[in-house]
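Standup notes, structure subgroup. Blocker cleared on the adenine input:
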Amino acid sequence: MRIDILTLFPKMFEGFMNESIIKRAIENKLVEINLIDFREFSSLKHKEVDDTPYGGGAGMVLMCEPIVKAIESVKDEDSLVILTTPQGKTYKQSTAHELKKYKHLIIVCGHYEGYDERIRNFVDLELSIGDYVLTGGEIPAMVICDSVTRLIDGVIKRDSYIDDSFTDNLLDYPTYTKPADFRGLKVPEVLINGNHKLIEEYRKEEQRKRTEERRPDLLGDKDENDK
Ligand code: ADE
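Run returned:
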C-alpha cells in the first residue's frame, strides 16, 4: 500500500516514520509513506497557502489551489482521498479494515482555523478521530496511517490483531506475563495450567464481561456511523 500525506508540517511525521513497527514496515516495503508539503503547490510569491475568511471571522483559511493541486499531483484511479476534520465520520477499527483494502490512500491534513469549503469537492471521505478539536490533521493522519499499516499482511503477526479490541465489537481480554505473583496479585490459574480449550473459553468470557462493564454501547452496536 502507498499512503501520501499532504501536510503543511511534514517534520511532524519524522518520529512516527522512524521508529518501531512503522519504520520496519517501510523498510520491508510493506507500506510506502510519502510526505507532500502543500506549500510547494502555492503559486504565490511567499508560498502562502492560507488567507483570511470571506465574511470575516477569526484565523486563516487554507486556500483551494495549493491543496487541490497537491491532491491532483498524486491522485490516480486507485486512490482514495481522505480529509481529516472534526466534522467527518468517526474513525473506527472497522474503518481501518475498510481502508486496508485500498492500494493508495491520500490523506489531506486540515489545519489552522479551517479550509475553504470547496476543497470538500475533491475528497472521497472525511474522517474525524473523535469528538475533540486538535490543532491540525497531522495527528489524525498518523492515527489512520498507524492503524491501517498494522493490519497489512506481514507487518505484525495475524495473532496479534485477530483479538484486538473492537474486533467483533468486543474489547480485548486481559494479558499477563511473569511473575505469576506480583505483590500478591496473582495471574489467573487457568492461564498457568496450559489447557488451551479452557484458556480460550476464559478469554472469550473476559472479553464479554469487560465489554459489558466498560463499553456496553459496543454490544449489539453495529456502527454509530450507520445509525
Ligand atoms: N482536526 C482537528 N481535530 C480533528 C479531529 N478530531 N479529527 C480529525 N481531524 C481533526
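Discussed briefly. The helical segments are 14-17, 20-27, 64-74, 93-99, 138-149, 158-162, 189-193, 196-214.
Next: hand off to the docking folks.
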